[in-house]
């Protein structure tokens, strides 16, 4: 049978310590021995080299044999029962008599192997009742303390009473895994470490990972000699994962670190909170020290007490803070904005600062800054607001160290190290910003954190100086706590809603004033139009009357004078027609007259009857197909078709008989691709002189005339009037034409639902 040891002999130094495989050292500490058993057969596949010191049998005698053949059926049965019933219980210990010696054993499954670690029963171990009494005392701690810090302080004292270590600390990590001694109990002659900080490099990532998996870690003697583990040489690269092992040998880098601190023995208990390594209970002794497994479990229970209370205590502290911020928030939410000036009254309230415990606040609205407390200047606020609007995408932003994001803001950091920013408008720089000033904090480090690694004649090694080193943190504010952030967010949302209502109210007021001004202006224009068109007709009638009388005496005048008077009379007639059309157009507006179903066939007969004289004069032919009823105002529709027919008769080539055809579209159609409404279309087509198609829109503008020839009389108002009538019916009118080929007018009447 061939055997080999599995000791990891890779050279480890500080250049590669973060990659050190500390879970497979291939060796253990000497205060117990280890067996690795194959599942099922319980054959001994791994064995530490120190078994002879405990059971008078060497590893060569054990490897390859079954557990039963070496230790007997009774021991095997106890082990199998333990594996079946208690393996997952970390607080359960297995008591075995092996080769006539009593041992307390821990057993776990690393996935491929059952690992049994045996430690001799200590004669000087504390009585169980004493351990129980000291442990029970912790239940009282939960009722006698109010804050997490008070609880941790009592736990350090209680753990030291149980274990007898020289120093017990609760070590808390920050977000970057830098550590702080949060609570401590130590011998009176020792220098306290309370409040000291340690850099994250002191505990590398893979060590933190093991602390997450194995909640208790013990080193009984820093100066121990590692005991190698042997195994059957039956496969290449064979190894044993000792992540959950109690006896696992320690990284030489960590041993050197503890040597530099002057520590002789340690016990470390992990504190896990929300699946993250929150901290450690770190116990130091300045000489070798071992604990019985029972006492270790009692000490580990203290870690469970703390972790069970972290959430409760922090929640209690946050609740008290939230209660105070909510009172301020409720007070602020009860304040209503009615005008811009109210913003200054709002920011002057002390509650707006208290809701997130800020030192200053500013609100930027419509380019104006309203502020209170310790704030930057107006110009700096505008610049900061503009940058934050871009950086956050008009949303929110929070920091306790602004210069990390805006290095050029160092001059502002005295008053503006920490900010909470909330945009109040997605399209502008309207915003609210709370400010916290710089809090110059003196951090006490156990040694210079920038010298966590030192270089000497031996190469790279852990720092050996733990002399107090002070660092002054500048341009950083007190951190914003979650209840403060919640209150700020809630109020910013409420303020945004109020400002939106204020903007809407201002717009409504502006619209109301404009509407009133427009109404007055329209009324005045209507009066002016009425007066001008009505009063101008009287002098025109006099001109026409006088011209007629003069022409009646034509034998007394020369032909030139008669011609001039006739032209004057014609101009007066045209002006009178124009004034009548203007009067019709200005008086045509959206009427409140009732809409009704209008029979177009009947309406067009009335139009033909009214226009009989003009139709007969030009011998016009009007063909009307079967037409549908439309929903409209009869007298307006009558005026609409009268204007269109009159245009068709008027704008016909000389010597040509006007032909007018009025038809319908047989299916309902939209006006254009973007219109979801369906329309009934009526076509009015003629054989007139037509026009170029690019004038199809402009002809509906008032006073627009495409034909200036004297034989085509008109004011340029008729088609504008038609367009307005169609608009009043929520419809449309369009024209299609070609010069010399007639015109088609399309009338779109919306279908009544």
Automatic annotation (TrEMBL):
MF terms (GO), sorted A to Z: phosphorelay sensor kinase activity; photoreceptor activity
Organism: Flavobacterium zepuense
Domain Phytochrome chromophore attachment site: 147-304
Keyword line: Chromophore, Kinase, Phosphoprotein, Photoreceptor protein, Receptor, Sensory transduction, Transferase
Cited Pfam families: GAF, HATPase_c, PAS_2, PHY
Keyword hit for Transferase: yes
SUPFAM superfamilies: ATPase domain of HSP90 chaperone/DNA topoisomerase II/histidine kinase, GAF domain-like, Homodimeric domain of signal transducing histidine kinase, PYP-like sensor domain (PAS domain)
GO biological process: detection of visible light; regulation of DNA-templated transcription
Reaction catalysis annotation: ATP + protein L-histidine = ADP + protein N-phospho-L-histidine
Enzyme class: transferase
PROSITE patterns, sorted: HIS_KIN, PHYTOCHROME_2
Family: In the N-terminal section; belongs to the phytochrome family.
EC number annotated for this UniProt entry: 2.7.13.3
Domain called Histidine kinase: residue spans: 531-753
Record-given protein name: histidine kinase
């Amino acid at each position: 049978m061939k055997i080999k040891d599995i000791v990891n002999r890779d050279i480890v130094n500080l250049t590669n310590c973060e990659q050190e495989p500390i879970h497979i050292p291939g060796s253990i500490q000497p205060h117990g021995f280890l067996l690795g058993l194959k599942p099922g057969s319980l054959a001994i596949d791994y064995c530490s080299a120190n078994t002879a010191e405990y059971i008078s049998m060497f590893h060569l005698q054990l490897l390859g044999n079954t557990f039963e053949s070496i230790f007997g059926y009774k021991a095997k049965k106890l082990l199998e029962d333990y594996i079946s019933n208690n393996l997952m219980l970390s607080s359960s210990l297995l008591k075995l008599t092996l080769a006539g010696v009593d041992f307390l054993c821990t057993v776990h499954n690393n996935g491929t192997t059952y690992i049994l670690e045996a430690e001799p029963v200590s004669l000087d171990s504390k009585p169980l009742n004493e351990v129980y009494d000291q442990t029970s005392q912790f239940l009282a701690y939960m009722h006698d303390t109010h804050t997490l810090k008070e609880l941790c302080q009592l736990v350090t004292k209680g753990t030291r009473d149980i274990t007898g270590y020289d120093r017990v600390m609760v070590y808390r990590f920050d977000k970057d895994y830098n550590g702080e001694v949060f609570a401590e109990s130590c011998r009176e002659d020792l220098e306290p470490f309370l409040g000291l900080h340690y850099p994250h490099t002191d505990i590398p990532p893979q060590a933190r990972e093991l602390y997450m998996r194995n909640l208790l870690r013990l080193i009984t003697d820093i100066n121990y000699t590692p005991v190698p583990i042997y195994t059957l040489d039956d496969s290449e690269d064979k190894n044993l994962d000792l992540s959950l092992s109690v006896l696992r040998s320690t990284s030489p880098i960590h041993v050197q670190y503890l040597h530099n601190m002057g520590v002789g023995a340690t016990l470390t208990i992990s504190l896990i909170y929300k699946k993250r390594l929150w901290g450690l209970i770190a116990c130091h002794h300045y000489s070798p020290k071992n604990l019985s497994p029972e006492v270790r479990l009692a000490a580990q229970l203290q870690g469970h007490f703390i972790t069970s209370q972290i959430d409760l205590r922090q929640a209690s502290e946050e609740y008290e803070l939230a209660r105070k911020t909510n009172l301020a928030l409720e007070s602020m939410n009860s304040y209503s904005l009615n005008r811009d000036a109210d913003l200054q009254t709002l920011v002057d309230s002390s509650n707006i600062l208290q809701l997130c415990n800020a030192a200053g606040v500013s609100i930027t609205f419509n380019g104006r800054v309203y502020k209170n407390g310790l704030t930057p200047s107006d110009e700096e606020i505008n610049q900061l607001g503009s940058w934050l609007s871009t950086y956050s995408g008009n949303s929110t932003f929070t920091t306790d160290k602004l210069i990390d994001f805006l290095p050029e803001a160092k001059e502002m950091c005295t008053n503006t190290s920490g900010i909470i920013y909330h945009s109040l408008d997605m399209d502008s720089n309207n915003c609210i910003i709370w400010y916290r000033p710089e809090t110059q904090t003196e951090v006490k480090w156990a040694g210079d954190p920038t010298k966590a690694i030192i270089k000497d004649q031996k190469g790279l090694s852990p720092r050996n100086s733990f002399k107090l080193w002070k660092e002054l943190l500048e341009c950083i504010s007190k951190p914003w706590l979650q209840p403060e952030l919640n209150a700020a967010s809630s109020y910013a949302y409420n303020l945004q809603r109020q400002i939106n209502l204020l903007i809407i109210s201002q717009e409504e007021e502006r619209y109301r004033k404009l509407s009133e001004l427009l109404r007055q202006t329209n009324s005045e224009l209507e009066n002016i139009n009425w007066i001008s068109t009505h009063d101008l007709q009287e002098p025109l009638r006099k001109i026409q009357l006088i011209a007629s009388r003069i022409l009646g005496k034509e034998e007394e005048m020369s032909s030139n004078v008669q011609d001039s008077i006739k032209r004057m009379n014609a101009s007066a007639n045209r002006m009178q027609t124009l004034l009548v059309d203007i009067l019709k157009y200005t008086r045509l507006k959206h009427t409140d007259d009732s809409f009704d179903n209008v029979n177009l066939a009947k309406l067009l007969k009335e139009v033909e009857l009214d226009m009989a004289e003009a139709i007969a004069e030009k011998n016009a032919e009007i063909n009307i197909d079967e037409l549908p009823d439309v929903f409209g105002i009869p007298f307006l529709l009558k005026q609409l078709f009268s204007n269109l027919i009159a245009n068709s008769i008027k704008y016909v080539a000389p010597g040509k008989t006007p032909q007018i055809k009025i038809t319908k579209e047989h299916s309902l159609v939209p006006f254009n691709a973007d219109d979801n409404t369906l329309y009934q279309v009526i076509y009015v087509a003629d054989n007139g002189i037509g026009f170029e198609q690019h004038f199809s829109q402009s002809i509906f503008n008032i006073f627009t005339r495409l034909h200036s020839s004297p034989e085509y009389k008109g004011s340029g108002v008729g088609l504008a009037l038609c367009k307005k009538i169609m608009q009043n019916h929520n419809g449309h009118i369009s024209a299609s034409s070609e010069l010399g080929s007639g015109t088609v007018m399309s009338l779109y009447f919306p279908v009544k639902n």
